[in-house]
Each structure stands twice: as C-alpha cells, then as structure tokens.
C-alpha cells in the first residue's frame, strides 16, 4: 500500500546517472523543482579508490562497485549473479552501476560526437534507420555538454565543430606518439575526444597519470556522473538515493501521475510530479516501462506498439595483442588516449559495419603477471619476462557498429530479483554485418602490428566479442511512431508528460561511445521542455554542414 | 570485499607488539593461533626460504611476510608443514626453479599447488581464489616493485601533466621502498 509521500516536483527524474543529472541541472536553473530518484546508494570517490586497491580482481572494473540487495545490478565475477538473464543466442553481459552517478564512474571518458553520416545510414547506405534529427540539430548541445564536462580532443575525427573545444588535448603518452609516428602515412592516429582535463577546469585538477580511469579516477580529472550529480545539487536539484522505482502510475488519459519506489526495507513511497523523465540506463529504463503494466496498458507504459526494449545495440570489440619491437611501457598517462577514426563512415557501410580502432594505454603489469604465473614461470625469468611484457605489449581493438534489429531486445524474465521484481532479460546476437566489419578490422590489426614490428600476435577468437556497456536503441526515438518509442524530443508517443533521457534513446549505435550522444540528446530534450513551459526558445541548429565542413 | 582496510599505522603497532613479545619469549596473552604463528616466525621459515627461491629475491618486508604467512595459513592450516616438506625436498633433490613444476607434478602432486600460491601472494599481493581471495598487498606487491623504475601502480599518480611524454627507455622514476 503506497504511503503518501511528501516528495513531489515539477520534474521527477528516474535515475541519477550522468544523463539524468545533467538534464536535471539544466531544468533546475530555470527555477523549476527537480527531484532525482536513484535506486542505488551514494558512494564517495575515496571509498571507491580504497575498494579498488583492496580488490582481489583489479581488472574487474565492477569490483569496487558492490551490488546491494535493494538495487541489484549485473555481477559476473567471481560468479554470475544471474540478475541480467541471458536469452541468447549470443551473450550480452552488460555491466552497469546502480549508484548515485551511475555507470560513468568507471569510464575512459570518451566523449565523442557522431559523424554526420551516422544520422542517415538508411538513406545513404540502405542499412539500419535514419535518426529523426541530424548532426546540426544536435551540434549546439554537443558544445553545451562539452563545456560543462570539460572536453578536449583532436579536430580530425570526422565531427565538424562551430566552436572550439573548451580546452586543449591531454598530452599524448610516449607509447602513443610512437604508434602515431610509425603508422603515419598509412593510418592517421589522433588524440581521443575525452572529458579529461588537460588543465585545471571547473575546480578539478588536470590528469596526473593515475592510469586507473577505469574503474576510478582518484582525483576527478575526468568528468563522470558523480560530478554531474554534485553540480545538479548545487543548483537546487533534490536527490533521493535508495529509491528503487518499480512502477509508473497513470491516469485515464495516459498521463503519468506518480512514480512508486521501494526503499531498502521494501516500504512503498509514492512520488507525484508534473513531468516524468526516465533516465535509468538502456536496460533499467525499458524494464521500468515493462514493469508498469496496467489494465489500460497491458504491454506496459509507452509500449502499445511493442517497441520498448527492442533494437538493443552496443559496441562489440575484438582485438589484437602483440609485442612491439621497442620499449614503450604502456601505463604512463591516461588509459585510452588515441585512436584511428578513418573507418567510421564511407560507402562500405552498405556492406559491413564501420568501426573505430582504439589503442589502449592500460598498464600490462597485472595481466602479464597473471599469465606468467599461470604458465608456472618463476625466479629471475619471471621478473625478466614481466619487464619485457610490461615494456613491449600493446593492444589495438575495434569498436564496431551494431544495427538495430527488433529481435535484439530487453524484456522481462519470469525470475525475480532480490526485491521481488522480474529480472531484465537480454536477447542479443552479432549479425553478419557486424561480423564482416570485425573481419575487415582484423586486416587493420595485422597491418598495425606489422608497422610496429609486432611479434607474438594474439588475436581474439571470431566468436569472442567483448562488450563495451554502450546500451542503445531500447527506447529509440524516431519519426514513425509505429517503429519507435519516443519522438525526436524524447517524448513517449502515448504519454504526454513522459520523456526519456538515456543512451537507450539513440536509434543507432554508430561507432563511438554513446555517452556524449545521450547527453546531447537529453540537453535538447531539456531545451524543448524549457521552451514548451514558457522559457526561451530552443537555440538555432548548428550550421557545420551548411558551411561545407562535413 | 574480503580484505582489511586497516590503515598502515595499525600494522606498525601490531609489528612492534609482536616483535617485543618474541624478544621476551612471552606468549601468555596470545590466542592459540597466534601462538602457532609466533612459534614459527616467518624470518627463518621454510616459507621465506621458498619465497627467496621462487622469486630470486631476498629483500622482503618482514611486515608483509608475516601477513602473507598468516593469510596462507588461513587458506590452508597445513601450510607451514607443507612448506617445510616442499623446501626440504627441493634442497635434498637440488631442484632448479625452472624444473620445479614438472618434478612436482611427477613426484609430489600433493604439493603442486604450493609454489603458485606463494608466487601469487608475493607477485600479485593476493592469497586464495574466487570468493576466498584476500588482498595482502597492492602497491608493494612484487609485480609493482619489479617495474617501479618505469611505472606507478594504477591509482598512484605517474607525475605532473605531460610527464608521460618522456621516453621511458631513458627516463626512470625514483623507486619507492617497501616499508619494513
């Protein structure tokens, strides 16, 4: 029985991740009341650093982020907790963090814009879907997000700009300079677009090379959801942690009237509001809609057309590990500094997936130690080989596009989680389009290793795609209400006061980490909400394409 | 998490306390398990001899050694006896470290897990597997020490912004000594 709650706001946002928090802050600055409801707990940066250093699984980036019974998230190591049920045919072992600040606590701070071609792959290449907006519709919001977060990077990545980055690039580690110099003339290697300070910015220090971006930056040199929440609170947004929202209530017209949540003791609290925004990541958001079945909406909220949870996409990766022929010593500086961006767009997209090629700068020391111990290498040989691997081992990986397929989806399992709620279930596969992109990328891996004098080549297997936790498509925006969950502003088709803000809203995955795309789309949603409630009109669209800068 | 988050000052006090107890040969106030450990203090033990043999090093922190041994005992209460047996066999059979695993597999399979366990403890700072794993060291684990002229362990700052543009072949970091 829901207790009446004193909690109510103009805008009730479910999910206090980077997107929900940045959206909430923008709305709060107009004077509106904003309440963030977050299923998980508040955890401090110091605790997270301590947990990492004391973790027996340092390469398991989820290990500093404990699972709590009142807001479980998927755990795979040391054992799978079975929370995200796998329906197959291919595993989709997504990781995400249910705590204040969300999953971007442990990211590499990649803050890419799409390239213009990403918005119209159906028209241009006959695959996937077109977005209901284009690059210039989003361009002002990319800039807005970059200035809040503190983003810098190369201007040679295929994404045109109307204004400069707010700061310069982080210094390129020696190892990455060698890659750039030795691949020059064959592949242009450029600095990544990252929300990582190259100088003090907004009260936070520049990167000092802790090389632990994933799972935690000890000094907040990189922006993340925890910082976004802090900024939101500073402008008057209210936060209710440990609020596991399990149901959206509606009236006879389909307007959302309340969000019901469980506290950790499973008491029910009812939160009312004027406008509701679901910003609870690409898995928990569709889950909430499906959990909210009623007599009127038997398929759940916003799901009359059975599109909620469908078109699940992420970025699969395959890679090549090799030993360079010179000492480069990965692990000095940030974890993910440079990439090749020339395969993000082109006529080939009608045949196979586009991709980026990421060069890692993550320290090899723990990985090499584990391998040497598993091989029973001891004594002086252990030390010599550890130094050799740490000095020479390199890795390049593909970040591949996945097309939106309706049968790839998030739905509900019959099994219940620790709060008695149906678990989320993933249906996923890697299709031939993406697989062909992977095989094409392997040709680049081979050439790159050759240019670096590579030996001891170790390719990942053809059936082994690593996941990147860029959960897209499950709340797709679109122009055609028959095949999408929301319109170009994130408004649910059948629920006038319900909006979505999530990477789940992105209708294609493109080739870049989804966070900046998700944030920019959400800031555009905020601009729309502000203009609709009597505030300033939405800013004009960008004109990078008109200027021929595409 | 299974590992201790005690600040290092607590460990220092424990070491001083244990040191003075051993010097006075007074064990009355120690619980049974501590008595067993103190009776076989790591410094001259088979565990330390094996540690030197397996790592080809002799610069171990006594404090870390105590905690390693305690954790290895916690994992298997037969650890000290097993370490004794293994070390005696290695010495009497004059086994080179790169032959050890093959000889163990053939002749003493019941002790085959021991070298890997000891190496993991020192090199990764971790004792045990899966849910039972305990973290004893991180920044002072051997693998961090072996590369400490070139790298800092993750979450420890390499240096000022841009310091990582230097050529590591010719640019060394100042080594940080493991506290006793």
Shape of chain A: globular
Mean pLDDT across all amino acids of chain B: 83
Largest interface: A-B, 56 and 52 residues
- Helical stretch count of chain B? 8
Strand proportion of chain B: under 5%
CA-atom Rg of chain B in angstroms: 18 Å
Largest sheet report of chain A: 7 strands, mixed
Distance separating the two termini of chain B? 26 Å
Low-confidence blocks of residues of chain A: none
| Estimated radius of gyration of chain A | 23 Å
Describe the structure.
- Chain A has 550 residues and is an alpha/beta fold.
- Chain A has helices at 18-28, 45-53, 121-125, 135-149, 174-183, 225-234, 281-291, 365-374, 379-392, 432-451, 515-532; strands spanning 3-14, 34-37, 85-89, 189-191, 238-240, 244-250, 256-262, 268-278, 319-323, 338-340, 355-359, 393-400, 409-416, 422-428, 455-459, 498-500.
- In chain A, strands 1, 2, 5, 6, 7, 8 and 16 form a seven-stranded mixed β-sheet that branches. In chain A, strands 4-10-11-12-9-15 form a six-stranded antiparallel β-sheet. In chain A, strands 3-14-13 form a three-stranded mixed β-sheet.
- With 180 residues, chain B is an all-alpha fold.
- Chain B is built from eight helices and two strands.
- A two-stranded antiparallel ribbon of chain B has the order 1-2.
- The chains are: A alpha/beta (550), B mainly alpha (180).
